[in-house]
Specification:
By secondary structure, this protein is α/β, with parallel strands linked by helices. Among the domains are: 168-246, Helicase, Ruva Protein, domain 3; 348-422, Ubiquitin-like (UB roll) (Roll). It is built from 13 helices and 14 strands. It has helices at 13-21, 52-61, 114-122, 147-175, 177-187, 189-200, 207-221, 232-246, 278-289, 312-328, 333-344, 379-386, 388-392; strands at residues 2-6, 39-45, 85-87, 90-99, 126-132, 249-254, 273-275, 293-294, 303-304, 347-353, 371-374, 394-399, 405-406, 417-422. The strands form 3 sheets. Strands 1, 2, 3, 4, 5, 6 and 7 form a 7-stranded mixed beta sheet that branches. A hairpin with a 5-residue loop joins strand 12 and strand 13. The radius of gyration is 24 Å and the shape is flat. Bound molecules: guanosine-5'-triphosphate and magnesium ion. The site of magnesium ion has 2 residues, from helix 1.
Length: 424
């Protein structure tokens, strides 16, 4: 999974990116050979407790494991994650985050980084547009004063990105339109569906994206009838419906700590809108990895490890952050990523194992892998994600919780533990 951060200059994209990808050293051993400069790995808490919680309960009940001790640094977790970490059964799973620079007017016409910018966006599974909800600076770098002005600036900013995407998609559509409409003449509605699907696979379009976009379009315009006669307005509207499917845009209303009121309520988006405080998240994560405080991303509070080691300025800064955090219920940074990944994209976490009883891999490690996959993924498709050999040789799978044998089309759900049997 790849989530792109986009927005005009100075809104806090890089701050958000650093905060979200700043992992404690002990969890940052993700094995990527090459990773582009603006790509990082964010560790996100799985929505359900790690299955090592159930495993521990089972082992304790059998008298094979002592109950958790008060001073257990892992607060009961007994899994051995190959990537990420697990403390108190909160399993952290990796996702790619991309800081996509270069949102300037006219990208669709090749201005700025132009098509390079747009294809960066197309490579992402979801987009988060970071906006400056405090109105600290306008396009020229001047502060915006009135709340209504911030509201209209936010509306302008968000519609600016969607309009850029709309014109880009319109360009692609317009380019092949005569061929597309000929296919409708020859093959009917089905022709248009196939044409759109082919035309936009490069941008990640699935058949269901296209069908849903056409549904929305039909609701607005009625039957598809004679596309070769359509006005530019009508083709542009189809582009808009496609964009809503291909690029749902979630909004990080950043700098919420300095915002007057809740100007983000004025924004309309076909995605999640979440107030965020990226620089506070960055400060808290740094203080946490420096051992000054103990803070879990997404938390609404933190503990100071040893107050006697801090100077008065540090204590002041921390206590003011603590107040703001309590008021807002968290910085919103981790929460937004988690909502995008698990709610908007409807993904779940599945744990493949080699031993369905002990929930270990072939080397005896407990629940080493946590895969982020589409909800309801079939067992065989999961096998392919683990290894192509496992997919090719797929025989059957075993549900590690019920110990039931299941077939290739068994749909996996959140927090499943799955053993895959394959011919070797
Ligand atoms: N008050 C406040 N300031 C923030 C917040 N997040 C970031 N900033 C500040 O906003 C300024 C710009 O942050 P960057 O992360 O560099 O912004 P950017 O969007 O990456 O900017 P470009 O790379 O120039 O496009 C910095 O001074 C940050 O400290 C926040 O949540 N609250
Ligand atoms: Mg930046």
């Amino acid at each position: 999974m790849r989530i792109g951060l986009v927005g005009k200059p100075n809104v806090g994209k890089s701050t958000y990116f650093s905060a979200a990808t700043l992992a404690k050293v002990d969890i940052a051993n993700y094995p990527f050979c090459t990773i582009e400069a603006n790509v990082g790995v964010a560790f996100i808490a799985a929505p359900m407790p790690c299955p090592c919680k159930d495993l521990r309960e089972r082992l304790e009940a059998d008298g094979r494991l002592e109950p958790v001790s008060d001073d257990d640094p892992r607060q009961g977790s007994i899994c051995e994650p190959r990537t990420g970490s697990c403390v108190g059964y909160v399993r952290l799973v990796p996702t790619f985050l991309v800081d996509v620079a270069g949102l300037v007017p006219g990208a669709a016409d090749g201005r700025g980084r132009g098509n390079a910018f747009l294809s960066d966006l197309a490579n992402c599974d979801a987009l988060i547009q970071v906006v400056d909800a405090a109105g600290l600076t306008d396009i020229e770098g001047n502060p915006i004063a009135a709340v209504e002005d911030v509201e209209s600036a936010l509306k302008e900013e968000t519609s600016f990105l969607t309009e850029e995407l709309d014109s880009w998609i319109y360009g692609i559509l317009d380019d092949g339109w005569s061929r597309g409409s000929r296919r409708v003449q020859a093959e009917g509605d089905k022709g248009l569906t196939t044409f759109l699907h082919e035309r936009f696979t490069g941008l990640g379009a699935s058949l269901s994206h296209v069908l849903q976009a056409l549904d929305g379009f039909r609701n607005q315009w009625g039957d598809l009838d004679t596309p070769w006669m359509w006005s530019e307005e009508k083709v542009r509207s189809l582009a808009l419906h496609l964009r809503c499917q291909l690029f749902p845009i979630h909004i990080a209303a950043n700098k919420a700590d300095s915002a007057k009121g809740t100007p983000w309520n004025a924004i309309e988006a076909n995605g999640i809108i979440q107030p965020t405080m990226a620089d506070m998240e960055l400060a808290l994560r740094r203080a946490d990895s420096g051992g000054m405080i103990s803070y879990s991303p997404g938390g609404d509070s933190f503990d100071i490890v040893d107050e006697s080691k801090l100077n008065p300025a540090q204590i002041n800064a921390l206590s003011s952050m603590k107040d703001k955090l309590a008021q807002s219920g968290g910085t919103g940074v981790a929460e937004l990523l988690s909502n995008v990944l698990f709610n908007a994209l409807d993904h779940v976490v599945v744990y493949p194992v080699a031993d369905e009883n002990a929930w270990k891999d072939s080397e005896g490690r407990i629940l080493p892998d946590a895969f982020v996959v589409p909800n309801g993924i079939e067992a065989k498709a999961l096998a392919y994600k683990v290894h192509s050999d496992l997919g090719d040789g797929f025989i059957k799978a075993v549900d590690g919780r019920s110990r039931r044998i299941v077939g290739a089309d068994h749909e996996c759900s959140d927090s499943d533990v799955i053993k895959i049997h394959a011919k070797s």
